[in-house]
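User: Isoprenyl transferase. Structure?
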Amino acid sequence: MHIPRHLAVIMDGNGRWAETRCLPRIAGHRQGVRTVREIVQECQRLGVDYLTLYAFSSENWGRPDDEVSALMELLSIYLREQFDLMLEKRIRLRVIGEIERLPLPVRRVLEETVAKTDDHDGMVLTLALSYGARNEILRASRRLAARVAAGELSPDAIDEELFADSLDTNGMPDPDLLIRTSGEMRISNFLLWQIAYAEMVFTPVLWPDFGVEELHWALTEFTRRERRFGLTRDQVDRRSGEKGH
Ligand code: FPP
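Assistant: Predicted structure:
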């Protein structure tokens, strides 16, 4: 099985999982956290270098207040209870998105966990929180524009590399594989710049029902795909031959 260096996941279907069981939506999110625990452990075990999870979008602020606060609470609990695992497995936590919009207590736990795991050399676990890709691209553009306005940067010096370095994901390789659960075939404003060449795997399985078996299925699917990055098959074969030497 080919293991992606960077796996990104749109965790979808918690609400529907709960609704079909006549449970409150938050029960679906609670079950979704169990899946997060399982998938993080399995990705770490398999040797994924970067795992990025879409945990809360900029648009999710529009959900009912009690659902938003329950999600924030679940996030804080998750970070506290998983801290020992992060220490043991040397997992490094990163966050992307407009963190300043999160409630202060959640921000504190996040910032603390990010700081305490900063020197870890294991898998990088990135949580996208209050995240929207268009917003991320705008913030990066504003930062670069400010540097141009200050006379520090010439517009011609802005290339793909510098732009990528100005995004929240700076220093991370682009995702090789994007998985979305729950049967929706949309990107929903997730990592728009970064997924230019990512393979996409969509599964009808709802996130709370997604487990190690489904992850392996998605990785097998990924392994079957041929990634050419716009080149011909011959060129790709020659390049991988060269890398092998
Ligand atoms: C999508 O399901 C899921 C979310 C909006 C939140 C994802 C959050 C978690 C899995 C729990 C907290 C996260 C971590 C990292 C501990 P939905 O509610 O949109 O489902 P629906 O489309 O069926 O309504």
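The beta strands are 6-10, 50-57, 92-96, 124-131, 177-180, 199-202. The mean pLDDT is 96.
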